[in-house]
Specification:
single chain, mainly alpha, Rna Polymerase Sigma Factor, Chain: A, Arc Repressor Mutant, subunit A, 73% helix
Length: 183
């Protein structure tokens, strides 16, 4: 389908336009979503795909055809939506009522709390890294992407990714030490 026609249809008749957009770009959005979220919960993947097309509809006025075709625009929405979902899924904290804990339970609450605090500090430290280091770190260590894939997706050389990772590790170590984590 012609992109201008599809955009016009999304604006005039959102339901029909989004159905056409889903038929055209659904496999792309699903591939991106599964790549980031993995094959965990099918419900999360499906919800993320739906959210992507809702965001497409909400942001269709921001699309500028002079900057490229609709495909990368939708791919960026899918990627960002999946990354947000991934962060949400992996940042949920399981709370255990204090009444349910006792000395005989075998649960080391102090160690768990320290581990949780350290995990939050690591996440904050990664977020404090400048771009593109943050994205490279996120892709490599949170999404387990290979260096070749990161380089291809970000359109940079493998050596540059490796150097950024090395610099990022040093910067991350310094940030964590400054936040009180002994390495």
């Amino acid at each position: 389908m012609d992109e201008k026609l599809l955009i016009s249809k999304i604006k005039r008749k959102p339901r029909d336009g989004l159905i056409d957009a889903f038929e055209e770009f659904g496999p792309l959005v699903k591939a991106i979503t599964v790549k980031i979220l993995g094959n965990g919960s099918p419900g999360d993947v499906e919800e993320c795909i739906s959210d992507t097309f809702i965001k497409l509809w909400q942001s269709i006025d921001q699309y500028d055809e002079r900057k490229g075709s609709l495909r990368p625009f939708i791919a960026a929405i899918a990627r960002n939506t999946a990354i947000d979902r991934y962060r949400k899924i992996n940042s949920d904290i399981i709370s255990v009522p204090i009444e349910g804990l006792n000395a005989e339970s075998g649960q080391d609450t102090e160690a768990d709390v320290i581990k949780s605090i350290n995990s939050d500090l690591v996440r904050e430290a990664v977020n404090d890294l400048p771009e593109p280091d943050r994205e490279i770190f996120y892709r490599r260590f949170f999404l387990s992407e290979k260096i070749n894939d990161i380089a291809d997706n970000m359109e940079i050389k493998n050596k540059r990714v490796e150097k950024r990772l090395s610099k990022g590790k040093r910067r991350l170590r310094d940030l964590l030490i400054s936040k009180g984590i002994n390495l």
